[in-house]
Structure formats: C-alpha cells, structure tokens
Write a structure and sequence with these properties.
The chain has a single domain, classed as Rossmann fold. It is about 45% helix and about 10% strand. It has 6 helices and 4 strands; from the N terminus they run αααβαβαββα. A 4-stranded parallel beta sheet has the order 1-2-3-4, sandwiched between helices.
C-alpha cells in the first residue's frame, strides 16, 4: 500500500479531489513484518480483505460514493469483489489479463466481461500482462473503459527512448481515474 507507485497515484488523486484510503493484503503485511518474499494469499482471502477495507472506507468517508480499485492483482481482486461490495465503480491500474508470456485465461477476463458496475482499466500499451494489441480482443464488457498509457509497462512506466516521462504517465493515469470517479459518482 505504500509502494512508490501507490504513493504517487494516491497523492495525485488527492490533488485532484479524490479521497483515497489504502490497505494492505495480509501477505504483504507478513512480508513487511517478517521480511522475505511471500506468495500472495489465495483469492478468497484477498476478497475478504477487500470487503473489510470497503466497510472501513464507507465508515471513514460516510456519505461519499465508494470506488474501489488496485494495482495489478489488487485491481483484479477489486473487480472480482465488486459484486459483493457494490461500489459505484472499479479502477484497475495495470490489470493482469494473463501471466507474462502466457495466454489470457477466462478466469482473468471474467471480472471485466460482465462487471456489476462501471470499470476503468488504465493499462500500459506494452504491458507484458495485457498490451494494446491483445486487450481489444478480450471481449471486455460495455461498462469497461480502457485508458492506454503510451509506451507504458505494467507499472505504466515508459522507456526512456520513447521521450515520455514516468511522471507524465502517472499524471495521465490520475487524470483518467479522477474523471472516471466524477462520472460514476454522479
């Protein structure tokens, strides 16, 4: 929850008037406490974490519409949890449509094929887990908007040779999320 990426996006969203609450999945908390690399929790534990975080966010931001989301697996978990949580929208930053070097699988695409609410995917055009050539063929639902970050990788970072900056990519992502949040909150 306090990675450089999440910190940068949260700060940019706050600067655009979007209130942000971050939380940490249990396996990440264990990594922080015990050190070392731990595999992610299984999806049921991730979904339970999202439900608990959504309950806490609703209490902390009483009266405000709830938008949930995350980076990579966190975005996938958010999309999967949306039906139970009933947010006004879901944001997926760098959605993992497939493992690197593998084909997309139906279970990875399903949360975005028929989402229970509007969804926004902010994806780098050269993301190894779903790039601009692959994703349009995945049959995403009509309620899903995809915003492409030019030359971005899975963390939206462009190559230096592109002439684009990471700061500009993060700004574009935050602009897209803030506009989406305003639209679905109305």
């Amino acid at each position: 929850m306090d990675s450089d990426f999440m910190t940068a996006i949260a700060a940019r969203l706050a600067a655009r008037g979007v209130s942000v609450a971050r939380f940490e999945f249990p396996y990440m908390a264990r990594r922080r406490a015990e050190g070392g690399k731990r595999p992610p929790d299984r999806m049921p534990a991730l979904l339970e974490s999202f439900s608990e975080a959504a309950t806490a966010a609703r209490a902390a931001f009483a009266g405000l519409p709830l938008l949930i989301g995350g980076k990579s697996m966190g975005g996938r978990a958010a999309a999967m949890a949306a039906g139970a949580i009933a947010p006004v929208g879901v944001v997926c930053l760098g959605y993992p449509f497939h493992a690197a070097g593998k084909a997309a699988t139906p279970e990875r695409i399903a949360p975005l094929a028929t989402p229970p609410c509007p969804a926004l995917v902010v994806q780098g055009t050269r993301d190894a887990l779903g790039n601009a050539e692959e994703v349009p063929g995945y049959g995403l639902g009509a309620a899903v908007d995809v915003v492409w970050i030019a030359d971005g990788d899975h963390s939206l970072k462009p190559r230096k040779a592109s002439g684009l900056t990471y700061e500009a990519a993060l700004d574009r992502a935050a602009d897209a999320v803030a506009e989406f949040a305003r639209r679905v909150a109305e």
